[in-house]
Design brief:
Helix content: over 70%
Largest sheet: none
Order of helices and strands: HHHHHH
Radius of gyration: 17 Å
Distance between the termini: 47 Å
Number of domains: 1
Number of strands: 0
Structural class: mainly alpha
Strand content: under 5%
Length: about 150
């Protein structure tokens, strides 16, 4: 529940940044930065697929509460759309979400981290990994001062 609330808030913030500020141009990124951005998006898609797999499986098995697993999948897809436009802000938000979700997963259960470290790894680490990839893509793309060949500098 904490993850869904944090991710929904992040989706709203990222979409607001993406649409209120100017459009980000991924074409100006160099090859390494574009691949890092694609890797982050692929990891997000796999994470959304993970939640969708559980949601569809539970609904197909007759448990209607499985629809709740589809909520994080939809939110992650919305985040994918927002991150495509704003990878720097997305990287920061994903690192914050990943840290909070991991801490929440470790501390929210009786028995602490040794017992529920798997929950923290499954729910928080993908956010941390995506955040790191997005920040690396932004840092790699920022090192390039001149536009790539074939683009018009205006």
């Amino acid at each position: 529940m904490v993850m869904a609330a944090l991710a929904a808030a992040a989706a709203v913030v990222l979409l607001a940044f993406g649409f209120l500020r100017g459009r980000y141009e991924p074409a100006l990124l160099d090859r390494r930065a574009r691949w890092l951005l694609r890797a982050a998006l692929a990891l997000m898609a796999a994470f959304a697929g993970f939640w969708a797999f559980f949601g569809i499986g539970e609904v197909a098995g007759g448990d209607r509460s499985g629809v709740m697993h589809l909520v994080p999948a939809v939110i992650i897809v919305l985040l994918m759309l927002a991150v495509r436009r704003r990878p720097l802000e997305g990287g920061i938000v994903f690192l914050v979400i990943g840290t909070l979700v991991t801490i929440s997963a470790l501390g929210a259960y009786r028995g602490g981290w040794p017992r529920y470290i798997g929950v923290a790894l499954v729910t928080g680490v993908p956010f941390l990994a995506v955040g790191a990839l997005l920040l690396a893509a932004t840092a790699t793309g920022a090192k390039r001062k001149t536009p790539p060949a074939g683009t018009v500098d205006q």
